[in-house]
């Protein structure tokens, strides 16, 4: 729902009306019609003038493990994907996109190969959340879908302010970044206790630059300094994501190096099995991942291995890149 359009449409109404609408929407109302404490005429006017969602659902896929992936189009035909993950302990975690496509070109990532579209508006990000909220209550969220959230941080933070109304506290909200230093600094200054995750993927500068060209812009050292400042200020540990690429970043010496670089007081390391996309890489085998983990532990750094969810519907990490053709209007722009 375009919240600005909602405000301007309700300009001649008492101020509490917009809040009333948002309360219903944030609690999973299926339509304006469900908002029974609004006058019927006003509901009709809203249905006419303010589309219930800024996104159109194009496709929804359900994986055998309960994961749901939704593909949407924005009004101007941009593709947006979001995922709902359901865990046995009751956690319901949403992974949202902050951009359509991504301007960065991480060599292993499917989204990085798509043509960059644009930043999503705050309403377009929220509508991904509300879509899943209409299915069931949700309680965790990560900005780990398409795009680099730190390059769209105004809108991302605006969304974060509203998430508690939907049932997702700031402590259960995480922003994942390639290491966009100005964004990390802004998050450090923010009053919201949001979690920070860093996609590191290499234990040293040269290899990181090869895998993630953005490392040429913000070096690994600068990025880790910014993460440490985040930890000092917030006293919240930083999550490190490390995608396991066979023969590239999964060797014994690389584990040793990584354990030297990452202070276990500050960082929690998450090893991510690589989800095959159309790339030059193969994922490390189960055994290679276990050996890497053992080598880390031998050198004082513990790590967890991320559970892969929704692989059978291309909903796993790094697989978000819409496969349906774009409408002609968006493809040509
Ligand atoms: N741009 C941000 C947000 C995207 S998060 C970032 O990079 O952190 C997506 C996460 O999935 C990142 O950690 C990314 O490195 C990882 N990823 C990308 N492609 C992947 C793949 N094919 N398999 C597993 N993880 C992947």
UniProtKB/TrEMBL annotation:
Cofactor note: Binds 1 [4Fe-4S] cluster. The cluster is coordinated with 3 cysteines and an exchangeable S-adenosyl-L-methionine.
Database matches in Pfam families: Radical_SAM, RlmN_N
Enzyme class name: transferase
Active site: 81, 317
Residues reported to bind [4Fe-4S] cluster: 102, 106, 109
GO cellular component: cytoplasm
Cofactor requirements of the protein: [4Fe-4S] cluster
SUPFAM superfamilies linked: Radical SAM enzymes
Residues binding S-adenosyl-L-methionine: 147-148, 176, 199-201, 275
PROSITE patterns reported for this sequence: RADICAL_SAM
InterPro entries for this protein: Aldolase_TIM, Methyltransferase_A, RlmN_N, RNA_MTrfase_RlmN, rRNA_lsu_MTrfase_RlmN/Cfr, rSAM, rSAM_sf
Localization annotation: Cytoplasm
Keyword 4Fe-4S carried by entry: yes
Alphabetized CDD domains for the sequence: Radical_SAM
GO molecular-function terms, A-Z: 4 iron, 4 sulfur cluster binding; metal ion binding; rRNA (adenine(2503)-C2-)-methyltransferase activity; rRNA binding; tRNA (adenine(37)-C2)-methyltransferase activity; tRNA binding
Catalytic reactions on record: adenosine(37) in tRNA + 2 reduced [2Fe-2S]-[ferredoxin] + 2 S-adenosyl-L-methionine = 2-methyladenosine(37) in tRNA + 5'-deoxyadenosine + L-methionine + 2 oxidized [2Fe-2S]-[ferredoxin] + S-adenosyl-L-homocysteine; adenosine(2503) in 23S rRNA + 2 reduced [2Fe-2S]-[ferredoxin] + 2 S-adenosyl-L-methionine = 2-methyladenosine(2503) in 23S rRNA + 5'-deoxyadenosine + L-methionine + 2 oxidized [2Fe-2S]-[ferredoxin] + S-adenosyl-L-homocysteine
Family: Belongs to the radical SAM superfamily. RlmN family.
Additional remark text: Reaction proceeds by a ping-pong mechanism involving intermediate methylation of a conserved cysteine residue.
Protein name, as recorded: Probable dual-specificity RNA methyltransferase RlmN
Name of the encoding gene: rlmN
């Amino acid at each position: 729902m375009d919240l600005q359009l909602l405000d301007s449409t309700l300009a001649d109404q008492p101020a509490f009306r917009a809040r009333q609408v948002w309360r219903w929407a944030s609690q999973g109302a299926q339509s304006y019609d469900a908002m029974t404490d609004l006058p019927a005429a006003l509901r009709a006017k809203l249905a006419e003038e303010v589309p219930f969602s800024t996104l159109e659902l194009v496709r929804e896929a359900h994986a055998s493990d309960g994961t749901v992936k939704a593909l949407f189009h924005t009004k101007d035909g941009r593709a947006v994907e979001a995922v709902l993950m359901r865990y046995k302990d009751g956690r319901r975690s949403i992974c949202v996109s902050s951009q359509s496509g991504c301007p960065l070109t991480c060599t292993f990532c499917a989204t990085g190969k798509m043509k960059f579209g644009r930043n999503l508006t705050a309403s377009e990000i929220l509508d991904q959340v509300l879509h899943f909220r209409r299915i069931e209550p949700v309680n965790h969220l990560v900005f780990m879908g398409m795009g680099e959230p730190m390059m769209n941080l105004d809108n991302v933070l605006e969304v974060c302010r509203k998430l508690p109304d939907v049932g997702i506290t700031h402590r259960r909200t995480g922003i994942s970044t390639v290491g966009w230093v100005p964004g990390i600094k802004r998050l450090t200054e923010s009053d919201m206790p949001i979690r920070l995750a860093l996609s590191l993927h290499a234990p040293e500068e040269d290899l990181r630059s090869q895998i993630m060209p953005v490392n040429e812009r913000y070096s690994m050292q600068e990025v880790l300094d910014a993460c440490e400042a985040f930890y000092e200020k917030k006293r919240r540990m930083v999550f490190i994501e490390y995608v396991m690429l066979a023969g590239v970043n999964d060797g014994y010496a690389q584990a040793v190096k990584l354990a030297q670089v990452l202070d276990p007081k500050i960082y929690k390391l998450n090893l991510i099995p690589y989800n095959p996309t159309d790339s030059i890489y193969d994922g490390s085998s189960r055994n290679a991942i276990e050996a890497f983990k053992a080598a880390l532990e031998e050198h004082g750094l513990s790590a967890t291995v991320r559970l892969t969810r929704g692989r059978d519907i291309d909903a796993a990490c790094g697989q978000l890149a819409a496969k349906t053709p774009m409408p002609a209007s968006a493809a040509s722009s």
